[in-house]
Design a protein that fits this description.
heterodimer, A: about 375 residues, alpha/beta, 8-stranded mixed beta sheet, 5-stranded parallel beta sheet, 10 helices, elongated, B: about 90 residues, mainly alpha, 4 helices
Chain lengths: ~375, ~90
């Protein structure tokens, strides 16, 4: 690929940074031009690349200048249609299509790669969206070895990421077309929420959640795999992982709570929930559970909050759950940090529309430090 | 607008806003909307943002009390109070 097409930014991208690969169709995904009546055939190696990246949790999409109906029909006939999320097939600039895909999937443009045989299209995208990694079909054979397309970890979530996104598309469509108030829509989802004590295999996803969750995040502090592993095994800490599924499929592991179990009081050091479940009311399930457990055992209950400029939502959630500010906190001694306390007089109820499986936590018999 | 009118006016607007989320028929001015168990974090935030934007007031940390938002009537009282404070300053 000629150097002038690669903007400086893309030369320093991190390994595993690409989360979606956007394909051109004619003479890229398949040989031939569909609208000219060619009997198009998938280019050698393409099917393998699609399947391998899919297993790595990298998503596929399309930016093609074509007739949308015939292109989708052809993809279905080839058995490849299920791979592609939010295909952008039409006559607008490909940079516009790529922007729409990134917005729909909710990722940054630096997490997007684009492959096209036409130098004009590559140049248009490289110039309008300099953060996008631009590729040409000649690079297909070595594509799977590129570090940008090789994530550091493969988690359970990687292999099902595409299904999770497809379920989300169906879910959003159901929400948009649902006639009636939100409460009835929530009930119609038949949600099943599971809260469990974090195991070793949860830690990679847990680390990722602390890095990627901004809005429903009580402190914005990030934790490394090693720190989380230490906290998980610490007798005076409890690390909980939340997952959610509904009739459309699984959302995966979507939340994390870290509680410091003091003699007289429990302290919620971190509570976060993925923005994908923001309107599902499951954050309050975690709070209700912890508050009622603390109340039962006669403990006081406090929570850290640190204003990150993006998490006012969490402040509102804490305050409305009945927490009050008790003092400027000491979350890393930062000026934005506060400590909130719940008096446990009125513990908010668990919403009736979620089927909850809550952990049997041996809060009292936590083994002492040897 | 005087305080009482301000409150009635705010109650109507809040009721209309909430009707998108609740079955409106049985939502009274004094119903505890949080006790119904359907106020999730997003709706709570939407409610706070709606009140700030619709009535051009700023909800400070000390206003973020559940008792200020628990019912349509209490939101009306909060708005009237904040409006009055703005007018007086």
């Amino acid at each position: 690929m000629s150097d002038e097409l690669i903007p400086a930014a893309s030369k320093t991208r991190k390994p595993g940074s690409v989360k979606v690969l956007v394909w051109d169709l004619d003479d890229t995904l398949w040989d031939g031009t569909l609208l000219e009546g060619d009997a198009v055939a998938v280019r050698p190696g393409v099917t393998e690349v699609l399947a391998a990246l899919d297993r790595r949790g990298i998503l596929h999409s399309i930016a093609s200048k074509n007739d949308a109906a015939s292109a989708l029909e052809k993809l279905t006939e080839l058995g490849l249609e299920p791979y592609f999320l939010y295909p952008q097939i039409g006559w607008s600039a490909k940079s516009a299509g790529i922007k729409a895909i990134a917005e729909a999937i909710n990722i940054g443009l630096d997490a997007v790669a684009f492959i096209d045989d036409q130098p004009f299209e590559r140049a248009e995208v490289a110039s309008a969206l300099p953060d996008v990694l631009v590729l040409e079909p000649a690079e297909l054979p070595g594509l799977l070895d590129r570090p940008e397309l090789s994530p550091r970890f493969l988690t359970d979530e990687s292999a099902i990421r595409r299904q999770m996104y497809r379920a989300d598309i169906d879910r959003k469509q159901a929400e948009e077309t649902f006639e009636g108030p939100t409460e009835e829509f929530l009930a119609s989802l038949e949600m099943r929420f599971v809260l469990s004590v974090a195991q070793e295999e949860d830690l990679q996803r847990a680390e990722e959640l602390t890095v990627r969750t901004n809005q429903l995040n009580s402190t914005g502090l990030t934790f490394s795999y090693e720190e989380l592993d230490r906290l998980r095994q610490s007798p005076d800490h409890l690390l909980l992982v939340a997952s959610l599924e509904d009739r459309f499929g699984t959302y995966g592991k979507i939340g994390l709570a870290l509680v410091e179990l003091g003699e007289a009081r429990w302290r919620l050091r971190l509570l976060l929930m993925s923005c994908r479940v923001m309107s599902r009311g499951v954050g309050s399930v975690v709070l209700s559970f912890l508050l009622s457990q603390a109340k039962e055992r006669g403990k006081r209950f406090v929570a850290d909050f640190r204003d990150t400029g993006r998490n006012r939502l969490m402040k509102v959630a804490y305050r409305f759950a009945g927490f009050r500010e008790v003092k400027a906190g000491d979350v890393n001694d930062s000026a934005e940090a506060v400590l909130l306390e719940h008096d446990l007089v009125r513990v908010p109820p668990i919403p009736a529309y979620v089927d909850c499986r809550l952990p049997e936590v041996p809060f009292d018999t936590h083994p002492p430090i040897p | 607008m005087d305080g009482a009118k301000e409150k009635i006016n705010a109650q109507e607007k809040v009721k209309h806003f909430l009707s998108r989320f609740f079955r409106n028929d049985d939502l009274k001015d004094d119903d505890d909307i949080f006790a119904l168990g359907f106020v999730n974090s997003l709706l709570a935030m939407q409610l706070v943002s709606f009140v700030e934007k619709e009535f051009a007031i700023s909800i400070e940390d000390e206003d973020l009390d559940l008792d200020n938002f628990r019912t349509i009537a209490s939101i009306g009282r909060l708005v009237a109070k904040k409006k009055h404070a703005v007018a007086a300053s």
